[in-house]
């Protein structure tokens, strides 16, 4: 128990006990997975050691999963296979509702989970968009984006939720100061995309946020030891330097996410993946040049987007409802809410793949 205070490295005995502890967890898990997937434990171990990362198709081919489905299809499948679906009786109100336009503010770095100050959480945003889709009083949506991106999966979940709205009502995207990388990804399924002249958009690319901090730890006197089972179990460690094999696997995985990104943009913009690649690779564009290369439909502000939504929905008198609903905040001091902020930051930094701009551009007038 005193070793962390008396040693700079792990003793042989401590390493042994930790290895045994991990084995008690690891090997039964391997056996359960192997049995459920009808493959041998040795074959599964080989997949773990050599595969490292699997995209959906590779996982199916390896026998790790049965099929590839979107999240909403999984929910439906559970209802059918597991008989968990509940019958609902919906009583429709006999009233004449007002025709409204939803103005959805999508701002901040994109993370999985809940939203917080400066962060757009996919759980909260998807829930908001699903509510708008099912609200019959809302006849059109203006999706106001001001984001440099963030978590890749969270970006896709939000984009798909907006795409689902587009199947029922017009969706107009209005870009603010920045709609880059994941911020552009969540915009691609708009019927029309508006951007200001100076909007920073594009940045179609993927980042793997891998940091090697061993030198820093050594400099300030922090020592680490790793106990692992699985050849590459420490690949995410910030004290592990990737070997050539791991680096190639990571490059392959990042390329898979990049191809997924460019394919989605190509689908949303009705063009080819090859063309999107030619204007992608992380390159940024202004709203003006974005229109020239086909990433943007029109140069204009939020009011122009509202006018477009009103026209497409056939609304004579415009009533705008803003989402998400503002939350009343009580502040008790300068540090209030810092734990929530740090939690969101941790969520972003722990993401394995980021559709995010690697820097922030500020234009100053002097």
From TrEMBL:
Protein name per Swiss-Prot or TrEMBL: Signal peptide peptidase SppA
Family: Belongs to the peptidase S49 family.
NCBIfam families: SppA_dom
Superkingdom of this protein's organism: Bacteria
Domain Peptidase S49: 5-74, 167-315
SUPFAM superfamilies: ClpP/crotonase
GO biological process: proteolysis
CDD domains per the UniProt record, alphabetical: S49_Sppa_N_C
A Gene Ontology molecular function term of the record: serine-type peptidase activity
């Amino acid at each position: 128990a005193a070793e962390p205070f008396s040693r700079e490295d792990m003793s042989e005995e401590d390493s042994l006990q930790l290895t045994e502890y991990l084995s008690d967890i690891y090997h039964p898990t391997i056996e359960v997975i192997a049995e459920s997937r009808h493959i041998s434990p040795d074959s599964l171990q080989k997949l773990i050691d050599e595969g490292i990362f699997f995209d959906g198709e590779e996982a199916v081919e390896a026998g790790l999963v049965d099929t590839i489905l979107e999240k909403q299809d999984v929910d439906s499948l559970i209802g059918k296979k597991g008989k968990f679906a509940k019958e609902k009786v919906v009583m429709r109100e006999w009233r004449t509702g007002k025709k409204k336009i939803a103005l959805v503010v999508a701002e901040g770095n994109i993370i999985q989970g809940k939203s917080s100050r400066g962060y757009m959480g996919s759980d909260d945003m998807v829930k908001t968009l699903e509510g708008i889709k099912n609200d019959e009083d809302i006849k059109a949506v203006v999706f106001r984006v001001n984001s440099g991106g963030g978590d890749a999966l969270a970006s896709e979940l939000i984009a798909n939720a907006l795409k689902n709205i587009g199947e029922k009502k017009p969706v107009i995207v209005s870009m603010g100061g920045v709609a880059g990388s994941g911020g552009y990804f969540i915009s691609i399924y708009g019927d029309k995309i508006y951007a200001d002249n100076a909007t920073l958009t594009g940045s179609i690319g993927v980042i793997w946020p891998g940091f090697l901090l061993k030198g820093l730890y050594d400099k300030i006197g922090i020592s680490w030891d790793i106990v692992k089972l699985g050849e590459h179990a420490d690949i995410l460690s910030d004290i592990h330097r990737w070997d050539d094999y791991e680096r190639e696997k990571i490059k392959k995985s990042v390329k898979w996410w990049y191809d997924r990104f460019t394919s989605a943009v190509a689908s949303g913009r009705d063009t080819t993946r090859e063309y999107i690649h030619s204007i992608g690779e992380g390159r940024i564009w202004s709203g003006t040049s974005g229109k020239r290369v086909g990433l943007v439909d029109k140069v204009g502000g939020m009011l122009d987007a509202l006018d477009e939504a009103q026209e497409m929905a056939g609304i004579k008198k415009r009533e705008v409802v803003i989402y998400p609903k503002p939350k009343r905040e009580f502040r008790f001091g300068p540090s209030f809410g810092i734990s929530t902020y740090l939690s969101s930051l941790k969520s972003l930094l722990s993401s394995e793949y980021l559709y995010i701009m690697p820097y922030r551009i500020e234009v100053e007038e002097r």
